Give the backbone structure.
Amino acid sequence: ISFSSSDFDFFYFVQQWPGSYCDTRQSCCYPTTGKPDEDFSIHGLWPNYNTGKWPQNCGSQSSLDRSEISDLMSRMHKDWPTLACPTADGMKFWGHEWDKHGTCTSFDQHTYFQFALDLKNKANLLQVLAKSGIRPGNFYGLESIKQAIQEGVGYEPYIDCNVDSEGNHQVFQVYLCVDKSATKFIRCPILPHGRACGSRIEFPSFSSDSNSSHK
Ligand code: 5GP
Ligand code: 5GP
Ligand code: 5GP
């Protein structure tokens, strides 16, 4: 049996907080373009089934071609930076996301990446949180973070936590659900399985090099 490349129900749009990616014991590496902004950045736009399962590596389309997304490059570097080590320019991360997830959509490469970039602007998480007084460098209740995003974006997010080098749980990734057209946020049909958050979690800063644990 072969599956059509748009055989899925909805997307998870997953953003990562660079402060939380970088301040774990594993640390991070800034991309060749330099230290990213203190803002959420894109991890991926992942097609999913309502059952919680998902298709991946649908591979019928060719691997990511730099020339297909050349007009999006400055937005890609700003909004979808790679923080994995060793330092890289992003093409490997974006190519991985395309191969694993993008190929399971019906979008071409340009459409897939442009829709993801546009979703980040629509969600505007950093500003949505600031409107509720939630700013990097402090601890907050998990529920107040979720409520602020619910108010600003319209739908409840799922928060994935990790642990910093001192053992504090912190906001690592924010999952929002998106309809099949990749343009509208929706109520999540099913929650992802993420890592536990305490009821009180850190939203660490990523603003100065003084607290940098970057290699
Ligand atoms: P992790 O195990 O670190 O949460 O996820 C590893 C990778 O598996 C993710 O980066 C993503 O590519 C994929 N993945 C994990 N959970 C989900 C999910 O619920 N839906 C989809 N579509 N992919 C997922
Ligand atoms: P996923 O977990 O989406 O399947 O895979 C993410 C892959 O991209 C991993 O191999 C990871 O090392 C690489 N990667 C490169 N840069 C980043 C980044 O900034 N964040 C995450 N989550 N993965 C990255
Ligand atoms: P509830 O049944 O109240 O929705 O939550 C069950 C458990 O999941 C509780 O321990 C609660 O703290 C946790 N939880 C609720 N929302 C989230 C979330 O967005 N992320 C994570 N990691 N845990 C959550």
Notes: The mean pLDDT is 93. The CA atoms of residues 3 and 160 lie 30 Å apart. Residues 10-211 form a domain with the Ribonuclease Rh; Chain A fold (CATH 3.90.730.10).
